[in-house]
Amino acid sequence: MQSILIVEDEEAIARVLAAYLRKAGFHVTRAADGQSALEAFEEAPPSLVLLDIMLPEMDGFELLGLIRERSSCPVIMLTARDGIKDRLAGLDGGADDYMSKPFIPEEVIARVRAVLRRPSQWSDGSRKRHYGSLFIDFSARSVFLNGAEVSLSPRDMSVLLFLAERPNQICTRDQLLEHVWEMDYDGSDRAVDLSIKRLRQALSHWPGSEGEIRTLRGTGYQLWTT
Ligand code: CA
Question: Rounded to the nearest whole angstrom, what is the distance from the C-alpha of residue 79 to the centroid of ligand 1?
Answer without folding.
Answer: 8
